Amino acid sequence: MKDLWHGRFDSNEDIDLRIWQIVKPFDDVSKEYGICFVGYDTDDGIKRNQGRIGAEKGSNAIRKAIQSFPIVENLKIYDYQNLKNKVLEEAQKEYSLKISNVIKKGIFPIGLGGGHDIAFASYSGIRKAYPDKKIGIVNFDTHLDMRPYDSGATSGTSFKQILDGDKNIKYSIVGFKKQGNTKRLIDTAKNYNVLILDEEDDEKFINDELKKYLADADILYVTFCMDVFNASDAPGVSAPTIMGLDPKKGKRILRKIMDTGKVVCIDFAEVNSEYDIDSRTAKLAGSLIYDIMNNLTK
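The structure assignment produced for this chain is given below.
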């Protein structure tokens, strides 16, 4: 694990421990509750979607951003490492199997991307672990990612793929901006009864609408495309968003979703180190992950 995790060292006393000092490989999973990072270090889907590449380094950038955070008491931390296969279809198969394995061990998976084609891979792993459950998806994203995939999957096709293949799904998007979506994409989403919540919508309205829409979902999957956030906070993405979602607003909405106790998987996509100023995007993802870790111990 030393190739993925190393950071500031104060001592080996419990009071001084930092995350990098306690991370163990997934093979060492015990019966104690914990989280497991799963790397999706490919941007093949972004390249196919004509985006700017560089997100393949996102997984390790997020690890670096959180490695020196203090540990969260009573929470074990594991890492399933990165992909062996980087071609989109094979990467999704490999990653989905890892997600399924983590869930079946009773551990909470946190995916680190990579392109937002991680979403189809995460969903596939969740469905393997929960074949009969109704899955509610909350996508923090500027873009609907419901493009046609007649010529193959990309980072922009995941949610149409999911909805086409599975009727026991509800899909909602938080942080939507009309400037990033054509009429065809919006009409497609409406045809699938997608809950579209605009970045400008009031926070209470977003929380209330999500609560109503996802009330009948058995489990929830939350995914972040980091371009949902304002470009000054998240410059290191494939498609930066001007006047995007405020990170603090996003964090508070995420906390409300976590409070349902239904969330079984979360991932973070489109962290592009090539364009990240002072690692802001990776640090923002890391900050949200740390908040999730503290929430899980409640």
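Interim note for the steering committee: Strands lie at 24-25, 34-40, 76-79, 108-113, 135-140, 169-176, 195-198, 219-225, 263-269. The mean pLDDT is 96.
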